[in-house]
Amino acid sequence: KNGYKVEVWDFSPWINLNYYNNYKPPDPIFFDGYKIFYNVEQIKHSLINLSQEDLIIDPFKILKNKIIFEFLMDKKIKIGTLQLGLLPAMIAKNYFDHIKRMLYFLYNDQLEFVRILFLKILTFFSRTKTINIYNFCLVGGKIARNNFKNKLMKNIDIINIHAFDYDRYLEEENKVYAHDSISNLKYSVFLDEAIPFHPDYLIQHSLKKYCSTEIYYSEINNFFSRYETDTGNEVLIAAHPRADYKKRGNPFNKRRLIQGQTTHLVKYAEHVFAHMSTSVNFAVLY
What we know:
alpha/beta, four-stranded parallel β-sheet, 10 strands, 43% helix, 13% strand, globular
């Protein structure tokens, strides 16, 4: 609306051919500016047509690739990244809180302690290299902004923009439903994450499934049944947007599986169940 021509460049066949060949999303992109690239030569060919008037937003650090990065530096094209859609979590207020959290995992969950420690070390050693790529960062919210308030980021422009989940919340508040069977129902909602068959497993070969399909659905359905008996609340499933249940079938023992209405379901739910979904934002807002 402000005169920008927008294109979306999909590098997934180049980055991870296994993912591209083996996963087809149930809601594919239909957009005039959508372009797909299979190799670095195709990417460089399109980059040649860019000028200093253009901006690139790279949320996945793809441009750290040496060949692409050096090419862009020669053309002096500005590159930005995103800090949006953060997962609501307990925020440690000071170093003492960080230490308490690490000690908790050290004594109660050693694997999680090692994982967090590894990520902190990895972040520390990759920080300078990551920062040098970017000229600007689009942030949504105070926490995201504070992540970039340090000396190493002093040459990066911070641009405040909207938060996606808050936009969905505002849209929900402005909707008028002619027939709404949800709002008067006694129910709770589960924010599904398609844990046993999430497409991320195709992207990260080192990422192991948290649990087998058989164990996961058996245990979670047993929990829902116990909860429904004890509370009288029906458990509704807010289906994960990347889960193709038409193809796979309903694994939640015939419970109502609803796609594309997560905000509305959370709004009127008595309780919200979740693992680590960013849609917990809706529960916080309501």
